[in-house]
Amino acid sequence: MRYDNLLFDCLFKAMARPNGRKLRRKEKKLEKTVYQDFEKQREYIVKQYRSKIAGKGLSEDIDDLFDELDDELMIGHIIDSAAETMKFGAEYRIGKEKLGRFGIKFDLDHPSAVKYLQTDRPLTLAKMKQTTKETIKPLLQEAAGKGTSPQELAELLSEEYAFSRERSLMIAVNEIGHAYEYGNKIPMEDLKDEGYKVKKKWQTVNDDRVTEECRANQAMGWIDIDESFDSGDDEPPREGNPRCRCTTLWEFTE
């Protein structure tokens, strides 16, 4: 998808989701940061290519180059942004449902928040690094075989999806969306633990861009908080659909 079309899709999503405009600002900030980190990674690879690979031939296994690729800064940026967004989502849900009267509160020391930030997010980010490796490795091997100059390689890498603005935006949309919805979910789980019956509903924006999977999730109506939707997801955005614009509706009774 072209970058301008992807941007339009994300703006449309921002208007559809509760707090969408605020979330879009968070997405835009993270997108810019991730793209800057991609530029640093691209410069690093070209530097390594120049000093270790160009003119010397290339072994078939160049995994060590990716093992040395420093993505800690990017991971830190993404996790920090996810933490901020999760807190925003939790506080929104607590305020909307007036959960303070039940003693429900949230901070980033909450066990569910810790699990999300220290376990779930790094696992997702590991897949992100694997995507970079799978995309760039054959390109490097081909460049070395052809005797491509470091300058030419730099231009090739700048055109690759692995380091593109499209991918930066996709990551930002995904991370912000997941963190916000998960933040909304945590107070409702706490409410369930207090003995209340909590239900959730998958809500689409009901337009012709909604996927069949999301439509099927919405058609389920209200389900128990511990149930999964037909797609296998516990809450939006749907796994495998980074442009998912859906959100979760919540209700509870004694």
Question: What is the compact description of this entry?
Answer:
This protein has 254 residues and is mainly alpha-helical.
Secondary-structure topology with pairs:
Elements: H1 3-16, H2 20-53, H3 63-67, H4 72-96, H5 111-146, H6 150-158, H7 165-193, E1 197-203, H8 212-219, E2 223-224, E3 247-253
Antiparallel strand pairs: 1-2, 1-3
Helix pairs in contact: 1-2, 1-7, 2-4, 2-6, 2-7, 4-5, 4-7
Overview of the structural elements:
The chain has 254 residues and is mostly helical. It has one domain (3-195). Helix content is 63%, strand content 6%. It has eight helices and three strands, in the order H-H-H-H-H-H-H-E-H-E-E. Strands 2-1-3 form a three-stranded antiparallel β-sheet. Helix 1 runs parallel beside helix 7, helix 2 packs antiparallel against helix 4 (72-96) and helix 2 (20-53) packs antiparallel against helix 6 (150-158). The chain starts with a helix and ends with a strand. 33% of the residues are buried.
Low-confidence stretches: none
What characteristic shape results from the CA principal axes?
Answer: elongated
Give the SSE string.
Answer: HHHHHHHEHEE
What is the helix content? 55-70%
Radius of gyration (Å): 21 Å
In the residues, how many domains can be counted? 1
Multimer state:
single chain
Helix/sheet category: mainly alpha
Q: Total helix count?
A: 8
Strand percentage, roughly? 5-15%
Main beta sheet strand tally, sense and closure = 3 strands, antiparallel
Termini gap: 47 Å
Mean of residue pLDDT? 87
> Which strand order spans the largest sheet, edge to edge or round the barrel?
2-1-3
Q: Compute the number of strand runs.
A: 3
